[in-house]
Amino acid sequence: MRDPIRSSESLAELSALHHALMNHCRNSATDSSSWNNLSRCARKSDANALSIVFLSPAELRAKFDRLKLAELAITNEYTCCLKDAYQVQLATEPSPVTAIVVGFKDDEERTQFLVHAFVRQDGSIAGSGLCDPKLLYDDGWVCFKTK
């Protein structure tokens, strides 16, 4: 559930930012029409963690926004990689969408964060219109994951 205190303007700004993040990732593929052309993420994204902290989805979302990870990825601080992608039919969508989990790696090939989204054929994000963070690193070695 999204923070009800956020104004519709800030939600719209976040949605636009998350849309740009997914497009940035998709455009980095050798064939931008297919997510499967992205490089693959490491099998175990939390392998380099000194500690793992489990947070609620809302807490992880807030940390993701506070760290401005989407902005960092868009400005090429991180490289996009594919964790998983498959077609699903959502009850709210007229045609199938791609359920995707993408990661963003640093220069040392360490995954810094993972996000999930339902992406339509036109590249827009279905559902809430936002990516859902699944894992992120803060302070380099502390891994935060959803409960």
Give a quick rundown of the structure.
Helices cover 24% and strands 31% of the residues. With 147 residues, it is an alpha+beta fold.
List keywords for this structure.
single chain, 147 residues, alpha+beta, 24% helix, globular, disordered N terminus
Shape: globular
By helix and strand content, what is the structural category?
Answer: alpha+beta
* Cα-atom radius of gyration: 15 Å
Residue windows where pLDDT falls under 50 for at least 5 positions? 1-6
Helix proportion: 10-25%
Q: Note the total helix count.
A: 3
Order of neighbouring strands in the sheet with most strands: 1-6-5-4-3-2
Number of self-contained structural domains: 1
Biggest sheet layout: 6 strands, mixed
The ordered H/E elements are: HEHHEEEEE
What percent of residues are in strands?
A: 25-35%
**Terminal Cα separation, in Å?**
14 Å
Mean pLDDT: 85
Number of strands: 6
